[in-house]
Amino acid sequence: MTTKCVLFLIAALVSVVGFTRADAETSRIINAETSKTLSTESMRNAIPNSSPCKDQPKSYKELKQLFEKGRVPSASEMNGTWVAIGYYGEDSPSVNCSGVKRGDVLESVLTANQYSIEIDMIGTYLQRSKMVRNKKGELIFSPDLGGDNTYVYRCRLSSRKTLICLGSYDNIEFKQMRIKDYQRASKSTLRNEQ
What we know:
Elements: H1 3-17, H2 21-44, E1 50-51, H3 60-69, H4 75-78, E2 80-88, E3 94-96, E4 101-102, E5 105-106, E6 108-113, E7 116-121, E8 127-130, E9 132-133, E10 139-141, E11 153-157, E12 163-167, E13 171-176
Parallel strand pairs: 1-3
Antiparallel strand pairs: 2-3, 2-6, 2-13, 4-5, 6-7, 7-8, 9-10, 10-11, 11-12, 12-13
């Protein structure tokens, strides 16, 4: 029986029998041990997401400058698989030139047939959408990320041939590349993990 199973059984027993002051200390120890175990297990297959491409933006400000100089990709330029290589927000960016990952699974993959896209992201279901050109010279799409909010991404092709999508929730840089099927969130147990 693994440490994780033993700790779970002890926690379950404590909750069934009743919670006393002495149990509070036991619970604190169990929670600390469980956190250590879970942290160790999740880090075992961790991929560093601080491995940028040599010319990749180092901040949101740099990403936005590239976006502003970008253009709408042609329908044929969109064809193929686009992998998220960077997430940019207020904090330090999460970047990986071979794709931002959790273990072996890629965070976000767009598979495009011209402006029709299939969105495969950890934390949501596999979905299809259409990118539409707006009057500002951007391609926009709106994935269902759950919850009550509507998320909209505005995308342009950069001079680096990456697709930069500025969003109402986060800002993502995608790069075209070939991937293995097992790297897709829809083929993984991480599909619905937040």
